[in-house]
Every structure is written in structure tokens, then in C-alpha cells.
């Protein structure tokens, strides 16, 4: 496979995002190597450990009948979220994407066809991102799209660089669990317990909307996380309050 010349300048070694889970409200650590790499491209996986702020995000590869329920909960609890959508989701569930934006949520980019970006050329990566951005704008009127979550959770320095040059910031996560296997749902208590065990200051929470467990656990989890003194904020708030050098990108 031919990749563009940028592969010669930066590493294209795949990184499969993941690390030891948080416990006892102590933020997890990806390690200095990854921290420095992400900072170089304004990417992040958690917020400040100094305040009890958390960020709720969802990956939407396809619709499984639970997103409306999730949106109902977010509206009731006045919680902002970011939904990372694929091309399939945009084409199959445009009404739900419209509702996300209408109710004040952010629609982020999860690529058009959910490929491994490390196996694509720079141009193909940009095409994947552009198609999602343009279709979202067409459906919802959301003009700007600056947040991207790498499909399959795979990235490299090259894909970080290409995405950043295209105007995107990688949003990874610091709280997640196996919730996307629709044939292996374990009941709402499992999803609830995982969220409560892993919650920590600055958490970027990743949930998948295909999960019945998540949909049924979400309201109680949000209520109980708030009871612990946490505040849910949007990723735009992150850009305003965290240490991103160029805050002009959110305007």
C-alpha cells in the first residue's frame, strides 16, 4: 500500500488505545510517552485531575434502538454529550442526528466507513473525515466539526498529524468497558457498576449507544455521579478550560 510522504516524517506504528482502568477516583495514566505524543497534536483522553468535571461521549456506528432513550435521559438530566458518528449512522438515522444537534449536543467525527486509519493514505483519511463533516452539516446545519475519535481505537503519530492538519482534535477516553457486543449484554447493573468504579476527576467517558445495558443504566449512573460532586460538561468546555494552546479553534 502506498502512503503519502508524511509517513517518512512521522511514525505510522499503530497504537491500540487502552490502559489500566481507574479505581478509587484516581485518574488513569497512559504514560509519559503517550502523554507527550497526544499533547503535540492537541489530542487528549482526560481532563484536569484538580476539578470534578467529567465529559460524556458516545460512539455511534449504527443504530440499535437505544439512542432515543439515551437522548431522553440526557435531556431530563441536563447533561451535554458528544456523539461520534459514522457515515452509516448519518445515512440510516438522520432524524436522531438532527435531534442530537437540536438538543444542544455535539456531533463528532468517527469516520465515514470505520476503517483503520493507519492503513489509509493521508488523502483517504481526509476524505473519510470530510464526508462525515459535510453530511452532518447537510442534515443538521452544524457548520463546525473539530472532534474526531479514531475508528477501532487505532491511531498513530501520522494519523494524529493528518487529522490535526485537517482541523481535528483526537478525543480518546479514560473510562470505558466492553459494552459494544450486543450478543453479550450483562444487564444494566454491569454498566452502572463499571461507570461508578471507574469515574474520576476529568474522566472522558466512552459509551456505545448500541448497548441495552448502557441505555438502562445511564440515568441512575448520571444521578449518582452527580451525587459524588461531579459536573458533566461538554467537550467545548474542555477546550475553554484545559491547556489547549490555540483556543481560537472553537469559534
Automatic annotation (TrEMBL):
- The residue stretches assigned to a coiled coil in this entry are none
Instruction: List the InterPro entries hit by this protein, alphabetically.
Output: Glyco_hydro/deAcase_b/a-brl, NODB_dom, Polysacc_deacetylase_ArnD, Spore_PdaA
SUPFAM superfamilies from the xrefs? Answer: Glycoside hydrolase/deacetylase
Q: Name one Pfam family in it.
A: Polysacc_deac_1
- Outline the extent of the NodB homology domain: 52-233
Q: Which PROSITE patterns match?
A: NODB (PS51677)
Question: Which protein is depicted?
Answer: Delta-lactam-biosynthetic de-N-acetylase
In its UniProt entry, the species of origin is given as: Pallidibacillus pasinlerensis
Amino acid at each position: 500500500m502506498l502512503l503519502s510522504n508524511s509517513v517518512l516524517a512521522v511514525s505510522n506504528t499503530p497504537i491500540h488505545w487502552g490502559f489500566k482502568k481507574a479505581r478509587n477516583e484516581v485518574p488513569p495514566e497512559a504514560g509519559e510517552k503517550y502523554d507527550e505524543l497526544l499533547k503535540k497534536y492537541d489530542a487528549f483522553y482526560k481532563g484536569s485531575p484538580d476539578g470534578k468535571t467529567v465529559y460524556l461521549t458516545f460512539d455511534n456506528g449504527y443504530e440499535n434502538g437505544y439512542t432515543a432513550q439515551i437522548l431522553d435521559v440526557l435531556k431530563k438530566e441536563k447533561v451535554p454529550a458528544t456523539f461520534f458518528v459514522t457515515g452509516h449512522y448519518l445515512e440510516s438515522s438522520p432524524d436522531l442526528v438532527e435531534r442530537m444537534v437540536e438538543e444542544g449536543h455535539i456531533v463528532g467525527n468517527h469516520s465515514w466507513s470505520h476503517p483503520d486509519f493507519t492503513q489509509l493514505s493521508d488523502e483517504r483519511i481526509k476524505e473519510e473525515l470530510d464526508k462525515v463533516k459535510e453530511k452532518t452539516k447537510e442534515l443538521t446545519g452544524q457548520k463546525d466539526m473539530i472532534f474526531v475519535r479514531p475508528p477501532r481505537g487505532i491511531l498513530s503519530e501520522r494519523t494524529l498529524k493528518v487529522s490535526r492538519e485537517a482541523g481535528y482534535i483526537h478525543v480518546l477516553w479514560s473510562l470505558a468497558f466492553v459494552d459494544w457486543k450486543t450478543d453479550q449484554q450483562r444487564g444494566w447493573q454491569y454498566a452502572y457498576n463499571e461507570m461508578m468504579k471507574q469515574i474520576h476527576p476529568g474522566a472522558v467517558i466512552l459509551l456505545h449507544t448500541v448497548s441495552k445495558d448502557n441505555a438502562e443504566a445511564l440515568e441512575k449512573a448520571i444521578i449518582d455521579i452527580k451525587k459524588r460532586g461531579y459536573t458533566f460538561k461538554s467537550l467545548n468546555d474542555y477546550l475553554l478550560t484545559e491547556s489547549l494552546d490555540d483556543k481560537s479553534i472553537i469559534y
